[in-house]
């Protein structure tokens, strides 16, 4: 039995399920398995909580269409949550706790008892208070229960011909702001625009623009760093990001690393 068969089997004895579909490859594979096992009794829910980029929302919509799963978009504003806005080390806990509340509301309306997400076994190696919040709220993680790794998720997605099989991991835009610095809509908008500019100029996939007030610290996937070596484009980048309000534009020489925002 393949890993994907195991995942489908995990759902086979379930009644109805809601899959928290983020737009990433992990939740997409979970949604695909749920759809295959339960057909119309599987519902994908994507939350637009105003700290995700438009690109991620569109990715979720597109992959839901690829899978053919029933898909709903719910909206609320995390910036109205003072515990989230203060941006301490438990920001993700407050984020996922609020998400779980909204998912449970949908589940109650849809008469669904089971909610699942795309957390994989490798995610447990990092400090992820958001995972704790979801677990405390009864959200299940079939990839974890089946000990499926990120690399295996990508292999499954590739075998299923999902367009996002090689999509870089992402997180909400607030993850670009150092802990202890308040999250605001202006900062989030500036970060999103800055990352769009970097992607368009250099054709890179893995990008983080870390927002240190006057400084934009750009991280690129290490395998894509060579794409930055164009002085004309760097000059253009410098000018465009300064138009957004940054006084200094820096490139992280070591490349992208998850959690890098709090190393400085």
pLDDT < 50 runs, ≥5 residues = none
Main CATH class of the largest domain = Alpha Beta
The number of distinct helices, counting runs of at least 4 residues, comes to 10
Distance between the termini: 46 Å
Q: What percent of residues adopt helix (DSSP H or I)?
A: 40-55%
CATH fold-type name of the largest domain: Rossmann fold
State the fourth-level CATH superfamily of the largest domain: HUPs
Number of domains: 2
Shape: globular
User: What's the number of extended β-strand segments?
Assistant: 7
Based on secondary structure, the structural category is alpha/beta
- Major β-sheet, in short? 4 strands, parallel
Q: Can you list the strand order of the major beta sheet?
A: 3-2-1-4
Using only C-alpha atoms, the radius of gyration works out to 19 Å
What average pLDDT do the residues reach? Answer: 95
Strand content: 5-15%
CATH architecture of the largest domain: 3-Layer(aba) Sandwich
Topology:
Blueprint: H1 3-12, E1 17-20, H2 25-38, E2 42-48, H3 54-67, E3 70-75, H4 82-85, H5 91-110, E4 114-116, H6 129-136, H7 142-145, H8 150-159, H9 185-202, E5 207-212, E6 215-220, H10 231-243, E7 248-251
Helix pairs in contact: 1-2, 2-3, 2-8, 5-6, 9-10
What keyword list fits this structure?
Rossmann fold; 7 strands; 264 residues; 10 helices; 2 domains; three-stranded mixed beta sheet; alpha/beta; Alpha-Beta Plaits; single chain; four-stranded parallel beta sheet; 14% strand
């Amino acid at each position: 039995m393949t890993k994907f068969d195991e995942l489908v089997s995990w759902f086979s004895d379930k009644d109805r399920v809601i899959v928290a579909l983020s737009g990433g490859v992990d939740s997409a594979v979970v949604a695909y398995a749920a759809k295959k096992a339960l057909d119309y009794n599987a519902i994908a829910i994507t939350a637009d909580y105003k700290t995700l980029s438009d690109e991620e929302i569109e990715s979720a919509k597109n992959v839901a269409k690829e899978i053919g799963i029933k898909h709903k978009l719910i909206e609320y504003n995390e910036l109205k949550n003072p515990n989230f806005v203060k941006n301490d080390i438990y920001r993700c806990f407050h984020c996922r706790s609020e998400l779980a509340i909204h998912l449970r509301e949908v589940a109650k309306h849809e008469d669904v008892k089971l909610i699942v997400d795309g957390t994989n076994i490798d995610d447990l190696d990092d400090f992820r208070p958001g995972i704790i919040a979801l677990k405390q709220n009864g959200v299940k993680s079939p990839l974890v229960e089946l000990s499926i790794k990120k690399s295996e998720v990508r292999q499954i997605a590739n075998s299923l011909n999902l367009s996002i099989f090689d999509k870089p991991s992402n997180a909400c835009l607030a993850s670009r702001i150092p802990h202890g610095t308040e999250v605001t809509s202006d900062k989030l908008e500036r970060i999103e625009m800055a990352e769009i500019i970097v992607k368009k100029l250099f054709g890179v996939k893995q990008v983080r623009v870390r927002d240190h007030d006057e400084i934009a610290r750009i991280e690129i996937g290490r395998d894509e760093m060579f794409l930055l070596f164009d002085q004309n484009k760097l000059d253009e980048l410098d000018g465009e990001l300064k138009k957004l309000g940054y006084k200094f534009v820096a490139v992280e020489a070591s490349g992208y690393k998850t959690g890098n925002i709090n190393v400085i």
